[in-house]
Specification:
Length: 428
């Protein structure tokens, strides 16, 4: 497979240094992607780069994932108006281990193949430099004029940020350039890939390799992902969509992809899956004939959720979705653990019922009034006569007595009034 062609049809190339495609066709090439270790989990904003590494390995090349332990202590000015928080070594090491586990779901670190992935941390070589050694061995090869010409530097100095730009951040491109130089020498790494906001930093590395070693290195970047409505990709009202299930549940992760717009889904299914072009073309054509079926969204959500969380969590997320949208059964509901239940019904009205009332048993009419599902006993009786009340997904009548056996996970009762009105009642 031709890596550049693969990335191109998937819409994952913005800038490509001359000679890159020829290098990749000539031999197995080692390429690296820098990953910011400021958290102990990747989020979906990292996934374009991770998929870049995955496609690289699928095409027979060797991926390096570089954890920015040293650069994480400095802060990258690219695309930012403020310096970021600096991390200590212990935190970075913890974050590195967590990130490697997530990357292992995408790229192969463990086989005996010559193109198996490796994870490196730039702190391992940057910590050996003294300041004098760095400005002598690295700084003298790149002029201030060259560094000032970078867009990321010009924007900050031009006054987009009131506090300006510290020398620490100004030196960032030299540190990143040093990474490329180190990997070129130690791993024969000839290509760096990254988002388009990294072009200036990446080309500083290729220039450093040229000036210091008379070597030839290459660069490939992709456009930063945007949403059709202008919103920021990967951001929701509750923040980032994380790969760590403790930060973003598999259900919420699945729902993010399932709820993408038609336009975004057509773009995302090329970027975030390994489906072949012919299959994607068929999916897009079928979807356009019946957009209400959400064919692309379903397949996109399946592919990426299985890749990140596994088939079992994907199946649970689909079942959970059916519960919310009216197709789930009482049996399916009872399978949910408390965390999944609360995730699905986050934001629905809640009520309370005392455990001693449940132990004694309470009539359904009194239960509906006590918990606030209905405003009065009269409304409760009318709703029951209309068969519009469901307790834990089972339709109920006026003869029903609500008891402790109705509790889900010994704590909650799910009440549905009509098709779309849910209430989560908590036993206290």
């Amino acid at each position: 497979m031709n890596f550049v062609e693969e990335m191109r049809w998937r819409g994952m190339i913005q800038d490509l240094m001359p000679g890159t495609e020829e290098q990749l066709q000539k031999e197995m090439t080692t390429a690296y992607l820098g990953i910011d270790p400021t958290a102990d989990s990747l989020h979906i904003g990292h996934l374009v780069g991770v998929m870049g590494l995955k496609h690289l390995q699928r095409c027979g090349h060797k991926p390096l994932a570089l954890i920015g332990g040293a650069t994480g202590m400095i802060g990258d000015p690219s695309g930012k108006s403020q310096e970021r928080n600096l991390l200590d070594e212990t935190t970075i090491k913890h974050n590195q281990e967590c990130i490697k586990k997530q990357l292992a779901r995408f790229i192969d670190f463990d086989s005996d193949l010559p193109n198996k992935a490796e994870l490196v941390n730039n702190y391992d070589w940057m910590k050996k430099y003294s300041f004098l050694e760095f400005i002598r061995d690295i700084g003298k090869h790149i002029t201030v004029n060259y560094m000032m010409a970078k867009d990321s530097v010009k924007k900050r100095i031009a006054g987009e940020a009131k506090e300006g730009m510290s020398f620490t951040e100004f030196s960032y491109q030299l540190v990143q350039g040093c990474d490329f130089l180190e990997l070129y020498q130690s791993h024969n790494c000839k290509l760096q890939i990254g988002g388009s906001d990294q072009w200036g930093n990446i080309t500083t590395g290729t220039e450093l390799i040229r000036r210091k070693l008379s070597g030839e290195a290459f660069a490939l970047t992709w456009s930063l992902i945007t949403k059709a409505d202008g919103g920021k990709f990967g951001k929701t009202e509750s923040g980032n969509i994380w790969l760590d299930p403790e930060r973003t549940s598999p259900y919420a992760f699945y729902q993010f992809w399932f709820n993408c717009s038609d336009e975004d889904s057509e773009k995302y299914i090329k970027i975030f899956t390994v489906l072949e072009k012919e299959e994607i073309d068929v999916l897009i054509a079928d979807h356009r004939l019946e957009p209400h079926q959400r064919i692309i969204q379903k397949r996109l959500a399946e592919e990426i959720t299985v890749m990140v969380h596994g088939r079992e969590q994907y199946d649970a997320a689909v079942e959970a979705s059916q519960i919310l949208f009216g197709k789930g059964t009482a049996e399916t509901l009872r399978k949910l653990d408390e965390k999944m239940l609360l995730t699905i019904f986050e934001g629905v009205p809640q009520g309370e019922i005392a455990h001693n009332q449940l132990a004694a048993g309470i009539s359904i009419v009194d239960f509906l009034e006590t918990t606030g599902v209905c405003t009065s006993k009269g409304e409760a009786r009318r709703s029951l006569k209309e068969n519009s009340i469901l307790i834990n997904k089972e339709r109920t009548t006026e003869n029903h007595t609500v008891s402790a056996t109705d509790l889900l996970n010994n704590k909650h009762i799910l009440v549905q009034k009509g098709k779309k009105n849910y209430f989560l009642i908590i036993g206290i």
